[in-house]
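Sample intake sheet
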Amino acid sequence: MGWAIVFFYSHAYSLTVALIGGFMLLGPGLAMGLYGLSRQREAGEVPRLQPSLTIWRVNLSNLGIFALVTGVVFLIWARASMVVFAVFYSSGLPTADDFLRELLAFENAEFVIAYLFIGGCFAAFIFSISVVAVPLMLDRDKDAISAMLLSLATVAKNPLPMLLWAALIVSLAGIGFATAFTGLVVTIPVLGHATWHAYRALIPPTAD
C-alpha cells in the first residue's frame, strides 16, 4: 500500500505524506487478523490464516461503525494536512527532500510545529478510542460505542503506560516508514500481537 501511494502520488508530496500518516489512523482496524491469530494462540489452537482473514464477520455491524468513524477522521486529516501545507508553503508545495530536511532540521518551524501538533491531535484521538476497542468487539461482541467509550476510559485510567505504548507504536511504525515500508513487514505484526496482549492486560477475561 505504501509503495502504491508513493508511485501514484509522487507528484503531490503533501498528499503522499497525508495518506502515509493516515495509515496510523487506520492501523487498529487493519490489524484485526493479527488479533485473531493471537486469540487462537492464547486458546492453545494452531494459528490458521483463513479465519484471521474473515474475522471481521464475527461482529460486522459494529466493526463497520468503527471503520466508518476512523474513515471519516482519516478524510478530515487528509484535508487538514493539505491546508497546513497550503498555509505554510506560499511558494509552492515542497518536494520529499524539502519536507524531510525541514522536519529533521526544524527549518520552517511554524510548519513543523503546526503539522506535528495537528497530526498528533488526530492520532491521539484515534489511539484513545481504539486502543482496546477492536479487540473488545472481536472478543466479546461489544457494540462499537461501548467499546470506544471503554477504550477512552482505559486511556484515562492509565495515562503514563498508554503514553509509553503510543510512543512505541509511533517509533516502530516510523522505523517501517523509514525503511521504504519494508520494515512494516516486521513491525506491524509485532504491534498487532502486542496490542492483543495489552488488551488482555488492561481488561482481564473476568472483567465486566
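Comment: DSSP finds eleven helices and no strands in the chain. The mean pLDDT is 84.
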